[in-house]
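re: ur question from yesterday

yeah so i grabbed the chain u mentioned. its 97 aa long if i counted rite. heres the sequnce exactly as i have it in my notes:
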Amino acid sequence: MDLISINSQELLKRLKHKSKRRNPLTESQNLRQRVAENLKTEMAYLQINNSEFAQMVGVSPAMVSMWRNGKALPSLVTLTRIHEAGIPADKIIKPLP
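ran it thru and got these structure tokens back, copy pasting raw so excuse formatting
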């Protein structure tokens, strides 16, 4: 069936169905941005900089910078270290307000 033979209601239904499909790339970008913003907030609350935080969780300051800029995500092992350093993982991955 081509678009010419589809009535307007059928076309709207198909467009809505397509819009409900998830885009993994967009979801990944959203997660990275959420982690970045939450990490900035928590680090500001603790009054620590990238170097101090990096030392606490056993990564380089450059890696912390990548997280804070939404370029990368911490691994599960690193999330565990972040939690052990005093920032619960749920505060890092929670949705933005």
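noticed a couple things. The chain has a mean pLDDT of 82. also The two ends are 44 Å apart (CA to CA).
anyway ttyl
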